[in-house]
């Protein structure tokens, strides 16, 4: 295992031949991809395409049937704790405990992720996500959008090398969503973080992602720059391309640019 | 073992207890009620029996020790349930926290809450009914230690059941002490049980403790070998329960149950 995983060159996340079977059902079919530092990669696909299964495997809460996941040079299967220390995540289906205040939640997750300069980091993320006024408010009484922002503040608390965002703006109004995208984009551009971002909002994906992966029935069937990819496949917009991928994946796969 | 990560679990419990009357009151209320009820029961039996038998250290003391062990178990399970109730598994187990650190955190939380319960019981039983740990001499330390270890083993085993069967299995957990108490010789000697079921008592570390406690109270002392056997058994149960929990956890990660725990089952 590398002694200083935080200074490894190359991709911060490498996924190779990743598979997941649930009995006879193959949810993820041997996908491979990489995420580089300061890169935001969109993981797109229909509901049930395998996005959340993939994120759960990278998060270490779901064991792959086959394949490997390397986070900042550390093999997740062999050195789970060291690898996960380099990650963090936010998902609309995983809000922080509502019976603790924003500050208490951040304090606890700072301990779990080994954040040494907790107070300074907490002040920064509270400021970045406009949460200072909610510092002593229980998360359970915040609006869904505010809770999402708390989850994102937690996700950036430890300056992760790999940030997993599963539909992070799903419950947020357009103005706040734009602010959040800017905040995450700024945090990513300043540090060494790479982001894997799932979203059904194609406008958002086009705005924020450097590269997208289209997942269909557990396989990556398209990959490229979200700004140029639609034209390569004869579509006007990313949303149009998404719909085509969803409805006619085989036909589209044959249309090489 | 990273102590900072482990400390996150008791710190979370501290925050929850500090801000919640619903959590604080049960820490004091049930043990107080038990001490008062069994205190008067002990007085009544002492008056009826008209013997030299020391009912207060023998019976009320037994209830106190048993309640302590129950609080230890519940300290572990309640801290785990906080993650179940708030659907917090993804947030907690998606961190670098290791299994020994998580279990260690639950145990530290349990130590704190059970210690509070013990102090309350001692105050009520001492001030109200004259119970003192001095009645057991130095033996009180191994008695408490074995019961603490067995309570931890029960707690870890109980959370393995809930993790395996889903949140609704919480209701299997609460009656565990009541199910064990007839065989644990809390209120009567093992010899009172029919010979055909005494083997169950021999498998339970508390039975040796309560037999030893009655031996001390009646002036016969404690069989050191049996006390050692109780300690060894408690250690075996802790290792066994940890092994079971680790297996259940690995299965939950493999099958996807951990990621979809609210579904209770992935089949």
**3D shape of chain A:** globular
- What's the domain count of chain B? 1
Secondary-structure-based class of chain B equals mainly alpha
Strand/helix succession of chain B: HHHHHHHHHHH
Biggest pleated sheet of chain A:
6 strands, mixed
Order of helices and strands of chain A: EEEHEEHEHHHEHEHEEHHH
Could you outline the blueprint of secondary structure elements for this entry?
The complex is a heterodimer of chains A (257) and B (267).
Chain A: E1 13-22, E2 25-35, E3 40-44, H1 51-58, E4 66-71, E5 74-75, H2 80-84, E6 87-91, H3 102-113, H4 118-128, H5 144-156, E7 162-166, H6 174-190, E8 194-198, H7 202-208, E9 211-216, E10 219-224, H8 229-232, H9 238-247, H10 249-254
Parallel strand pairs in A: 3-8, 3-9, 6-7, 7-8
Antiparallel strand pairs in A: 1-2, 1-4, 4-5, 9-10
Chain B: H1 3-18, H2 21-49, H3 55-85, H4 89-93, H5 99-129, H6 140-165, H7 170-173, H8 176-180, H9 198-202, H10 205-217, H11 224-255
Helix pairs in contact in B: 1-5, 2-3, 2-5, 3-5, 3-6, 3-10, 6-10, 6-11, 10-11
Describe this structure in words.
The complex is a heterodimer of chains A (257) and B (267). By secondary structure, chain A is an alpha/beta fold. Chain A has helices spanning 51-58, 80-84, 102-113, 118-128, 144-156, 174-190, 202-208, 229-232, 238-247, 249-254; strands at 13-22, 25-35, 40-44, 66-71, 74-75, 87-91, 162-166, 194-198, 211-216, 219-224. In chain A, α4 (118-128) crosses α5. Chain A folds into 2 domains: 5-86 and 162-254, 3-Layer(aba) Sandwich (Rossmann fold); 92-159, no CATH class. With 267 residues, chain B is mainly alpha-helical. Chain B has helices spanning 3-18, 21-49, 55-85, 89-93, 99-129, 140-165, 170-173, 176-180, 198-202, 205-217, 224-255. In chain B, α6 runs antiparallel to α10. The two termini of chain B are 34 Å apart.
């Amino acid at each position: 295992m590398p002694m200083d995983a935080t200074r490894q060159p190359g991709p911060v996340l490498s996924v190779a031949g990743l598979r997941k079977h649930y009995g006879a059902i193959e949810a993820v079919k041997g996908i491979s991809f990489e995420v580089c530092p300061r890169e935001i990669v969109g993981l797109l696909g229909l509901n049930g395409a395998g996005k959340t299964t993939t994120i759960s495997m990278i998060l270490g809460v779901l064991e792959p049937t086959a394949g490997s996941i390397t986070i900042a040079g550390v093999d997740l299967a062999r050195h789970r704790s060291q690898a996960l220390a380099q990650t963090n995540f936010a998902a609309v289906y995983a809000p922080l405990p509502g019976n603790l205040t924003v500050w208490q939640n951040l304090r606890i997750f700072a301990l779990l992720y080994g954040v040494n300069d907790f107070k300074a980091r907490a002040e920064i993320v509270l400021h970045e996500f406009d949460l200072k006024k909610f510092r002593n408010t229980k998360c359970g009484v915040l609006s869904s959008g505010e809770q999402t922002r708390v989850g994102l503040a937690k996700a950036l608390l430890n300056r992760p090398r790999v940030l997993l965002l599963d539909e992070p703006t799903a419950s947020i109004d357009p103005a706040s969503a734009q602010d959040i995208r800017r905040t995450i984009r700024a945090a990513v551009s300043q540090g060494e973080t790479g982001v894997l971002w799932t979203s059904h909002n194609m406008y958002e994906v086009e705005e924020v992602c450097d590269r997208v992966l289209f997942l269909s029935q557990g396989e990556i069937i398209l990959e490229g720059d979200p700004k140029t990819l639609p034209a390569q496949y004869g579509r006007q917009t990313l949303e149009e391309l998404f719909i085509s991928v969803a409805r006619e994946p085989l036909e589209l796969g044959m249309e090489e640019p | 073992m990273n102590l900072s990560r482990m400390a996150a679990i008791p710190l979370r419990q501290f925050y929850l207890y500090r801000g919640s009357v619903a959590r604080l009151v049960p820490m004091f209320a049930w043990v107080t009620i038990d001490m008062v009820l069994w205190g008067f029961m002990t007085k009544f039996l002492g008056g009826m029996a008209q013997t030299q038998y020391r009912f207060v250290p023998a019976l009320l003391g037994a209830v106190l020790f048993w309640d302590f062990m129950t609080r230890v178990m519940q300290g572990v399970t309640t801290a785990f349930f906080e993650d179940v109730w708030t659907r917090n598994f993804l947030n907690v187990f998606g961190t670098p926290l290791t299994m020994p650190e998580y279990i260690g955190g639950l145990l530290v939380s349990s130590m704190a809450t059970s210690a509070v319960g013990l102090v309350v019981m001692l105050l009520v039983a001492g001030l109200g009914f004259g119970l003192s740990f001095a009645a057991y001499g130095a033996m009180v330390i191994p008695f408490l230690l074995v019961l603490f270890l067995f309570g931890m083993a029960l707690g870890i085993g109980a959370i393995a059941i809930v993790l395996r069967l889903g949140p609704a299995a919480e209701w299997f957990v609460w009656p565990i002490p009541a199910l064990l108490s007839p065989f644990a010789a809390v209120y009567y000697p093992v010899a009172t049980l029919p010979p055909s079921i005494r083997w169950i008592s021999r498998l339970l570390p508390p039975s040796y403790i309560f037999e030893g406690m009655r031996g001390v109270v009646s002036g016969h002392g404690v069989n050191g070998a049996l006390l050692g056997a109780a300690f060894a058994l408690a250690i075996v149960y802790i290792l066994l329960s940890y092994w079971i929990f680790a297996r259940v956890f690995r299965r939950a990660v493999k099958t996807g149950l951990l990621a979809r725990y609210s579904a209770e089952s992935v089949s």
